[in-house]
Amino acid sequence: MRTTSEKSSGRAPVSADRPAPAGALSGPASRKLPVPPRERKPALAALAVLLILGGALATTLLVLRSGDRVSAIQIVQQIGTGQPITEAAMREVQIADTGIGYVPYAARGRVTESFARVTILPGTLLTEEMTLSASEELGPGKAQVGLALKPGQMPSTLRAGDRVQVIHVSARGEAGGTPGRVLAQSALVHSVGAQGRGGSGGSGGQVTIIVDSTISPAVAGYSARGEIALAELPGAR
């Protein structure tokens, strides 16, 4: 039966079971946009797995590789160009195997028969490129000359392997202040003996240099008269 209000309004009651009119929204769910089905890409997934596995394998290899140690030769004394490499100048060190061709410590006997191609500083790990089987400085046409120098005739910092100018300085005090005459532009210092301090001129001592055999008699003669001086060439090592 209709109630009084329904009769007075003239409207028919809406049943809860009655379906909503066509085109009407039924609720919040009806406002959602359609979602397309998710596309699966098995190739990309497989690639990601391979990359992860490859990275893990590389990390493992690096860790294992870092544990590989090899024995190498480290130079502990400065060795000048053309100088023999003595066993006293070498020591054994353990380093990571990086693939660089360091000379193994087991080859130290062979190394003692070679010479330095370049000046080798203390702390250097020795490679084959740093050595020579024969000293080019002591080849044909070269001569070793021993000098007994007075204070002021040689730098106090002179060491084996340095390059020097060999200068004739007259002891007779020639008039006009004639400058010294260069006998050898770039001679190699083969060895430096005990040096002593004296006077204001600095240090003197025994020095052996390598020069061309054509000028070795003149250098030896001037040295015997105390008329030889050495000027170091730091940039010519």
3D architecture notes:
Among the domains are: 69-132, Type Iii Antifreeze Protein Isoform Hplc 12 (Alpha-Beta Complex), CATH 3.90.1210; 140-236. The protein has four helices and nine strands; from the N terminus they run ααββαββββββαβ. It has helices at residues 4-9, 42-66, 108-111, 216-224; strands at residues 69-75, 90-96, 115-116, 131-132, 142-149, 163-168, 181-197, 203-212, 228-232. The strands form three sheets. The chain has a five-stranded antiparallel β-sheet with strand order 5-8-7-6-9. Strand 7 (181-197) and strand 8 form a beta hairpin. It is elongated and about 110 Å long. Mean pLDDT is 76; it is low at 196-201.
Largest sheet features: 5 strands, antiparallel
What is the molecular shape? elongated
Q: Segments where pLDDT lies below 50 for 5+ residues?
A: 196-201
Percentage of β-strand residues: 25-35%
Helix tally equals 4
Oligomeric state of shown chains = single chain
* Helix-strand topology string: HHEEHEEEEEEHE
Helicity range of the residues? 10-25%
Helix and strand content put the structural class at alpha+beta
Number of E-state strands = 9
Radius of gyration: 45 Å
Mean pLDDT, to the nearest integer, reads: 76
Distance between the ends: 122 Å
Arrangement of strands in the largest sheet: 5-8-7-6-9
